[in-house]
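I am sending you the entry underneath: sequence plus fold tokens. Let me know what the token row says about the fold:
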Amino acid sequence: MSTPLIHVQMEDPSEFTPEHKDKSEFRDFRMHNVPERVKRVYSEMHRKQTYAFVNQKMSEWCRFDHAEITVMEALEILSSYLDESDPDVDMPNSIHAFQTAEGIREANPDKEWLQVTGLIHDIGKLMAVWGEPQWCVVGDTLPVGCAPSKRIVFDAQYFAENPDMDDPTLNTRLGVYTENCGLENVLMSWGHDEYLYRVLNANTCHLPDEALYAIRFHSFYPWHTSEDYMFLCNNKDLEMLQWVREFNKFDLYTKCPDTPDIEQLKRYYGNLVEKYVPGKLKW
């Protein structure tokens, strides 16, 4: 990828939090507050996302033989898609994409690569449109092949039924990994984050590593929010963590009922996409 960027402290984007919703109200996963659709997705996810399952999905989807479409075409497909795992969103995913990108653009007009990252970060959810169940497309992600963190959403309720928890090679702190092996060597639970990361690496992509980390790990809340799994990280992971966190603020706090004028924005973002992720991608 491109030459690493100079790391600078970005401004706190809390100003983009919708005025009618306090920051503390986002990601409220308390059982009595969460919609049934959210519980259903996480129940299936934590029971069925095994080490073997993820390897199977990597083999299946990383052939990149499902479609050849542009980023903007992917966003159009997601204009009628609703993420059932998100307690903060009840609107199509394409709207969230433009909300995130616009929040980043307002705070960082000079960081085009970050704006593109905001626009495209969820388009791996195409898998759900193409037939995958939501429990292996959306929701928080985590490493498979080792014991799950206790800070993962609904941990106590659902992981007990995961077959990997009965496998002594997979249910320990390190599992199949070694100390500080680096997240590039870790198998993450299968979902839209990992899929898009693999798609971008398999196609022409001019986004920097900072963007690719944000795309691959924006749903890895136990890591970027709770600082779990640090024992798997190498120095590059720790360096990139600041950018995942900065991106996550926009991803989370720009969610609101107000919708941007997407038709008016398409030309601007279409030009940016052609600069950083041009042409038709193999999916």
